[in-house]
Structures are given as C-alpha cells and as structure tokens.
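Thread: zinc ion complex, take 2
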Amino acid sequence: MASQYVLPSVEIARLASPYIELLIPKLTGKHFIILYYLLPYSLIKLKYGRNIKVLMDLEKLRRDVIEIEDEIIKIRRQIHENPELSYKEYNTAKLVADTLRNLGIEVKTGVGLPTAVVGTLKTPRPGKTVALRADMDALPVEEMTDLPYKSKEKGVMHACGHDTHVAMLLGAAMLLVKNVDMLSGEVRFLFQPAEEDGGLGGAKPMIDAGAMDGVDYVFGLHIFAKYPAGVFATRKGPLMATPDSFKITVHGKGGHGSAPHETIDPIHVSLLIANAIYGISSRQIDPVQPFVISITSIHSGTKDNIIPDNAVMEGTIRSLSEEVRKRALSYMEKIVKSICDIYGAECKVEFMKDVYPITINDPEVTEEAMKVLSNISKVEETEPVLGAEDFSRFLQKAKGTYIFLGTRNEQMGCVYPNHSSRFCVDESVLKLGALAHAALAITFTNMK
Ligand SMILES: [Zn+2]
Ligand SMILES: [Zn+2]
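Output below.
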C-alpha cells in the first residue's frame, strides 16, 4: 500500500527537462525506467504545494489509531447509552466540546443552534481549509438490542449510527493533533445537531452562523448497514435525494352516505388524485431517472353512513435531479387542480419549504478522496440512494464528498438496516472512519 509520498526535488525535474528533450532520441530502456520513477514525484509536487519530505505517513497514522481505538469505542458507547433527539443534543455537545478543548483545539459552541459545536485546528503553514462533519442526534426508536451499553433513554436510540460519527470525528481530532506536522492550513470540525429533523435541520443554521466561511473542502461519513463492515462506498455526482414532502387537502361537501350525488365526496376525489399522481413516476418521468412518489397517509371521515367534508393526504417525493423534481411538482399541482375542478372540490397542495437539497459529490474531489480511502480499506462505487441528508447544504458551500462506511457483519448479528430498533454496529470499523477523516484532512489541506 502506498503509505508515504516522498516528494521529489522539483529543481531536479526543472533543470533536467531541457536535457531530457535533447536526449529523447538517445534514450534507452534504462533511462525510461529512471523517468518512470521520477515522473510521479514531480506530479505530486505539482498537486500538493508543500515542500516537505513526507506529506502523509499513513503507517504512523495507522499505528496511532490503534492506540486510541479503545477510547473511540468508549466515547461511542457513552453516547449510545445516552442518546438525545434532534435539537436536544446538550450532553453530547458538552462531551464533544470538552474533548476538543482537552486536545487544545479552539472550540465555539452554540454556532447557529444551542447544541452545535465547531472546533478549529490551525497550523502555521499556509494551506487549504478542510471541514469534517459529524451529526449527533438520535431517533425516537425504542432500542430492541441486548447490548450491554443499550440506550438508557426510553424510546430514544442511536439507530442511525450518529453516535459512531461523533466518536470517529473525535478520534480524527486526536490523530490530527498528534500529527499536526502533516497538516497545512486549517481543519474545521463540525459537530451538527438535528440531521434527522428533515425540515430545517442543523446544517443550515450552522452555515448561516458562519461555520463554512472560508472552507475549501468538506467531508462527511455515514455508517451504513447496507455495506460489509469496513467497506467505504461513495460516488461522483448525485449520491442522495432531495425529499419533497407534500400535503394535499381536499375540501368537498359532506352528506348522507346513501346520497353521494348531493355531496362533493372528498374521499372519491382523493382516490382519483392518488391514482393520477402515481402515474407521474410511470408516465411523466424518464424511466432511467431515480424517482419515487409515496402517499404515506390519508385521513378522512368518521362513520360508515357519512360522507365527510374533507380529506387530507400526505407523502413524499424523492428525486436526484432538479429538472425531474420540478417536473414532478408541477404535474402534481396540475393533476390536483384538474381533478378538483371536475368535481367542484376546493383543493390545496402544499410542499414543505427549504427541503434538504440533492447531495452532490464533487467529481474531482471524490476521485481523489476515493484514492485516499483505498489506502485505508476497500472502496466501492455505490448507486445513489433516495434517502436524504443535510450534508448536502455543506456541499453547496464547498467542494467535497459524502462517504458511506459499511458496518454489516453477519457473524455479529449486525444485519439490521439503519433506523431499525435492532440496528447495531461492528465497532472495529470506527478506527477506519477516524483514519479516513484524518487522511482526507491531511491530503486536502496540503492541496495546491
Ligand atoms: Zn437516519
Ligand atoms: Zn443518519
């Protein structure tokens, strides 16, 4: 595995280049072998500005992360036992701020939200600013595992693995403080509340409060039961969807169940709307585009012989392209209006405002990030998923990559999906996540 990038003397390459041109006709196979070894060194110098002997010693980072592995797991278990819901991550935020301060990292708390924490690690060397993000909130799920450190909070569980995100990023902070000589520029540690909220979310208030000001690159990791333990998975371009929640209200005219002709039946109108909007995915959207509409609730009526006045339907639309999304939303409005006009019902379509945008990984940064990760563990190119993430908002402010880290382990019984009450994590992957964060920070702060 390529663990050390020993930088060449750029001077040698520069001074040698005119002679190499003159010599090309006389070059033998031996000379080409020498050039073959010189060239990558020169390219590294062009890419990374820093003229140091060793840019990143991955073997040292690997040794260091083994030393702190127990501590990372201990932090994870402490957070797992004491999960906190979105916007209420007070104790988690305190643990984060205390740990960062003990490492000598500059800490700001209450960045946009009371529980948001930003740590800053500056170096004296000029370089890029790299932000690393971990979300901190748990879910309203009753934990059904029998782990010795299972949740002590009734009805609250870290079922999406955000406890591991916090622990891995704190592990990275420990690694980077210890190996600060490998860094240039600045590393920003973003500990974000309320990713699971799905509405406002924690990323936006943090960005509005300046957490991303001056950031050149941003990276985030999500633990994911879909992939085998220790496998990194990501892709260039769209990775996760934008979630458009909708609510359709049909105001009809109630009456007796035996005389529907004297009413405007909102249930009948709602069923026609439901059938028609399911046609959007099959008849209005390019079938090769990832897209889904789900109606997830319909509420109306009270009794078998009463036609009610109103009906309300709610659901979600997921898409990976802004064009597809706009087309779907516009068709939904047209369908609702047309059907309601025919039956004389008054209808309203409401879409949730300011939803999480599409998570779009920068192609060049992702390619580079995948190379870095491939020195740590196996890397797979993943298909997009139609879940949503407000890491997307950070990606609108700086180039970067969102990466999944697999935790599926059949032998340990870690086979349940994220958000399941039986979700569990193979903790041996946590050191890989810490290492990945640290290696990405070192590589990208040193980027020219
Ligand atoms: Zn989740
Ligand atoms: Zn999550």
